[in-house]
Amino acid sequence: MTETALEFRATTPSPFGLLEITERNGAIVRLTWPARGPEVEPPTPLLEAATRQLQEYFDGRRQDFDLPLRVEAAEFERAVCEQMRAIPFGETRTYGDIAKALATAAQPVGRACGANPIPIIIPCHRVLGADGLGGFSASGGVEDKVWLLKHEGAAGLLI
User: Fold this and answer.
1) Most C-beta atoms within 10 A of its C-beta, which of 61, 110, 113, 115?
2) What is d(CA 137, CA 129) in angstroms, rounded to the nearest whole number?
3) What is the pLDDT of residues 133-146, one digit of tens each?
């Protein structure tokens, strides 16, 4: 018997426009921007918590997220996401640092970072290339990554 997925979405404003947060079966599974539009249903308690925590982050009142997350991806991508979640606010790591921790090469780590389904909450913006910023899969690209790093006080790395 197949379990039916209960899925809900909410939007929240951000410095990049509307973000859309997706909850599936009691966990946050996706964050995308720009969102398609405002939510049409009242948000669930989890989505209310997620939107509140994102606003606190953007307002400079939150450094860590306390939300149930589920990365719906292959084991390697989940391992990369766990490595990214361990990077403290205002700090960065390189793709090579994560590759070393996982005993793999930097290139697949970069691909996994780019496929992160829950950016910001899982801070892929804190992962840099050995010789520069690296990429960022958000709609605003590297400019959004720079904004997030400056917001966290990691801008010294950009000079």
Assistant:
1) 113
2) 14
3) 887 877 778 889 99
Distance of CA 112 to the CA centre of its chain: 12
Burial of 127 (0-12, 13-18, 19+ CB in 10 A): buried
Q: How many residues are present in the chain?
A: 159
Active site residue 81: no
Report the distance separating Cα 19 and Cα 36, nearest Å.
9
Give the end-to-end CA distance of the chain in Å, rounded to a whole number.
56
The conformation of residue 117, written as its DSSP 8-state character, comes to S
pTM for this prediction: 0.91
Cβ atoms of 68 and 26 closer than 8 Å: yes
Please identify which of the residues 122, 124, 138, 149 carries the catalytic annotation: 124
